[in-house]
Amino acid sequence: MIKAVVFDVGNVVVKWEPENALSHLTGSRDSALRLLKACNFAAWNLELDRGRSWGEAMRIAKADYPDHYFVFEAYRDHIDLAHSHSLIEIEAIILDLKKANIPMYGLTNACREAFDAARVSASALDELEGVIVSGDVAVIKPDPEIYRLTIDTFELDPNETLFVDDKKTNCDAAVKIGFQAHQFLTADALRTALRRYGCL
């Protein structure tokens, strides 16, 4: 029996689409994605998730990719657009879990600014009783430390807690700590799993 659920945020509750922050610069999604790849944006953003300050992140971006610095500026200035699409089906699941009196929490790899932008798009995030934001604690999934921090902070029994994440590596790490885990692929599959666990 599952007595609590821990949700990832990006690409589970809210789509993370950094290319949308470049929409005013490019004529297509494909061109925006090419720009992000050209300046190794994913690795740069991961360090924000790990707790690097924006000031330091922008200094590094300017030094390493001076010809693409405008890409990093666009993401910083339009981070809300990168988190503007909530997943309505997941919001409905969160509300149903609330009605079922299942405590819910969050564990997300994100900087504080990214998480705040996601909260604007997905009001259901306000139904979570607490969220660990990796940028605030300077450790990211799948490091075991952040799972243990989640357990301690929210006083969870991992054996009775379902961890939901879109990345298999993060789910596998959660299982090693003792959580039950569900890799998020579709809302329907998640709802089916929650019924199987007796949550809905």
Q: How many distinct beta strands?
A: 7
Percent in helix: 40-55%
Largest sheet: 5 strands, parallel
- Sum up the overall morphology in one term: globular
Strand arrangement in the largest pleated sheet: 5-4-1-6-7
**Average pLDDT score:** 96
Features:
alpha/beta; globular; 200 residues
Would you kindly provide a written description of the structure presented here, covering whatever features stand out?
By secondary structure, the chain is of the alpha/beta class. The protein has helices spanning 29-38, 41-49, 54-64, 69-77, 88-99, 112-121, 134-137, 144-154, 168-177, 187-196, and strands at residues 4-7, 14-15, 85-86, 104-108, 131-133, 161-165, 180-183. The strands form 2 sheets. The chain has a 5-stranded parallel β-sheet with strand order 5-4-1-6-7, sandwiched between helices. The protein has a two-stranded antiparallel sheet with strand order 2-3. Strand 6, helix 9 (168-177) and strand 7 form a beta-alpha-beta unit. The protein starts with a strand and ends with a helix. The mean pLDDT is 96.
